[in-house]
Specification:
This protein has about 400 residues and is an all-alpha fold. About 55% of the residues lie in helices and about 5% in strands. α10 crosses α17 and α12 packs across α14. The structure holds s-citryldethia Coenzyme A. This is Citrate synthase.
C-alpha cells in the first residue's frame, strides 16, 4: 500500500493464467512437455513431432505425423513480395531486428483473412509460422552477407532444410552433415517451450487484447532479444571470446570477476529465474556439444575447454552454490552453433525460431479458452494528490 493508492496483491494479469502445455519444477530440475520429460523427448523425438505435441496435447500417430509434416512443407515458402521487405534494411542490420520486422509484416499478408475465434484459422496461422520461420531466419542471414535467398527444399527434414537455406548458394549445393542436422534439430527441441518466461508472457499479454498471432509473435521476438533472456547464447560466445586464453590462471581470474559486485562481468549462460538446480536442457545440450565437436574433430576446442572449466569451478564454488547458479540452456548451445558455422548474431534468431511453437501454442491455448485482457497493476511510488499552484 502507498498512501492513498493501494496495490491489490490478489490481482493477477489474466493473460498469464493456468496452462497444460509445460511443467517446470525449478527445485528438482524437471521440465515436462505435455507430461513427457525433455530428456526422453530429446532422445526419441524430433522437433516437428514436438511441435505437434505442444500444439495438440498428444503425440501424433503415423498418419497424423505424415499429414502434419506435409502441411508444414506446403507453407515453407514466403510470399514473394515479402522478400522486398528485407531490401529496406541496411546490410549490417542485426538479424533479430530484421526477423522482428518481417514477422510483424506477416500480419499485412494474413490479417484480413484471419478470424482468431475460428479454430481452423488459428491452426493455419500456427502452421504458417512453424513453416516460415526457418525460411525468414535464413533469409535474414543471407541478406546480411549479401547472398541470394535460397528457396526451401521440401525433400529435406526441418533442420536439414534450415541449414540448406543458410549455407547453400545457387553456385554450390550444400548437403547437411547428418550429425550436425541432428544437433540442430535437438537445439530446436530444447528451446521449444519453457512455460511462461518473459517472451511467452509477452505473447500472451499481446494476444489477450485480440491482436493477430503474427503481431503477437513479433512482440515475443522483441522480448526474447534481451541478453538476460534469449540473447544469452550470443552473450556466452562473446564472454568466451573475452576470456580468450584457456589457461587455468586466466579462467580463475574471470571466475573471481563474475563474483565481484562492482565488476560488470557476469557468467553468461549461468543462473536461471526458475531453476535452482541443473537446467535439464543444459545436460542434453552438453552431450550434443561433445557429439558435434567429436564429429568435427574439434574436441580440443579451447572455448569448449574454457566452458567446461567454468562449469567445473562454479559447481564447487560457494558463491555459485549459495546462489544456486547452474549452467542453463544457453551455456553450451552457442559452442554447438559456432561449430556448425552459424554466426553469433544468428544465435538468438535460432532461439526465436525454436520458441515460435511454444509461443503459438500458448497463444492458441489462451484464445481457444475463456480469457480477458491482461492488465498487470503497479506499486505506485509517486506523489499523493496535490493542488495545482495558484498563479
Ligand atoms: C533464458 O525464464 C525462462 O524460462 C528463460 C529461459 C527460457 O527457456 O525461456 O530459460 C531462457 O532466458 C535462460 C537464462 C539466460 N540468461 C543468462 O544466462 C544471463 C546470465 N544469467 C543472469 O542474468 C541471471 O542468472 C538470470 C537473469 C538468468 C536470473 O536472474 P535472477 O533469478 O533474477 O537472479 P538474480 O539476478 O536475483 O541473482 C541472484 C544472485 C545475485 O547475487 P546477489 O545480489 O544475491 O549477491 O546471483 C547472482 C546475482 O548477482 N547472479 C550471477 C549470475 N546470475 C545471477 N552472478 C554471476 N553470474 C551470473 N550469471
Amino acid at each position: 500500500a502507498h498512501g492513498l493508492f493501494t496495490y491489490d496483491p490478489g490481482f493477477v494479469s489474466t493473460a498469464s493464467c493456468d496452462s497444460k502445455i509445460t511443467y517446470i519444477d525449478g527445485g528438482k530440475g524437471v521440465l515436462l512437455h505435455r507430461g513427457y520429460p525433455i530428456e526422453q523427448l530429446a532422445e526419441n523425438s524430433d522437433y516437428l513431432e514436438l511441435c505437434y505435441l505442444l500444439l495438440n496435447g498428444e503425440l501424433p500417430d503415423a498418419a497424423e505425423s505424415e499429414r502434419f509434416e506435409s502441411t508444414i512443407r506446403r507453407h515453407t515458402m514466403v510470399h514473394e513480395q515479402l522478400t522486398q521487405f528485407y531490401k529496406g534494411f541496411r546490410r549490417d542490420a542485426h538479424p533479430m531486428a530484421i526477423l522482428c520486422g518481417v514477422v510483424g509484416a506477416l500480419s499485412a499478408f494474413y490479417h484480413d483473412s484471419l478470424d482468431i475465434n475460428d479454430p481452423h484459422d488459428r491452426e493455419v496461422s500456427a502452421y504458417r509460422l512453424i513453416a516460415k520461420m526457418p525460411t525468414m531466419a535464413a533469409m535474414s542471414y543471407k541478406y546480411s552477407v549479401g547472398q541470394p535467398f535460397m528457396y526451401p527444399r521440401n525433400d529435406m527434414s526441418y533442420a536439414e532444410n534450415f541449414l540448406y537455406m543458410m549455407f547453400a548458394t545457387p553456385c554450390e549445393d550444400y548437403k547437411p552433415n547428418p550429425v550436425l542436422a541432428k544437433a540442430m534439430d535437438r537445439i530446436f527441441m530444447l528451446h521449444a517451450d519453457h512455460e511462461q518466461n518473459a517472451s511467452t508472457s509477452t505473447v500472451r499479454l499481446a494476444g489477450s487484447t485480440g491482436a493477430n498471432p503474427f503481431a503477437c509473435i513479433a512482440a515475443g521476438i522483441a522480448a526474447l532479444w534481451g541478453p538476460s533472456h534469449g540473447g544469452a547464447n550470443e552473450a556466452v560466445l562473446n564472454m568466451l571470446d573475452e576470456i580468450g586464453d584457456d589457461s587455468e590462471e586466466n579462467i580463475q581470474r574471470f571466475i573471481q570477476r563474475a563474483k565481484d559486485k562492482d565488476d560488470p562481468f557476469k557468467l553468461m549462460g549461468f543462473g536461471h529465474r526458475v531453476y535452482r538446480n541443473f537446467d535439464p536442457r543444459a545436460k542434453v545440450m552438453k552431450k550434443t556439444c561433445d557429439e558435434v565437436l567429436k564429429e568435427l574433430n574439434r574436441s580440443d576446442d579451447p572455448q569448449l575447454h574454457i566452458a567446461k572449466r567454468l562449469e567445473e569451478i562454479a559447481l564447487e564454488d560457494e558463491y555459485f552454490i549459495e546462489r544456486k547458479l547452474y549452467p542453463n540452456v544457453d551455456f553450451y548451445s552457442g559452442i554447438i552453433l559456432k561449430a556448425i558455422g552459424i554466426p553469433t548474431n544468428m544465435f538468438t534468431v535460432i532461439f526465436a525460431m525454436s520458441r515460435t511453437i511454444g509461443w503459438i501454442s500458448h497463444w492458441n491455448e489462451m484464445i481457444s479458452g475463456e480469457y480477458k485482457i491482461g492488465r498487470p497493476r503497479q506499486l505506485y511510488q509517486g506523489h499523493e494528490t496535490r493542488d495545482y499552484p495558484k498563479k
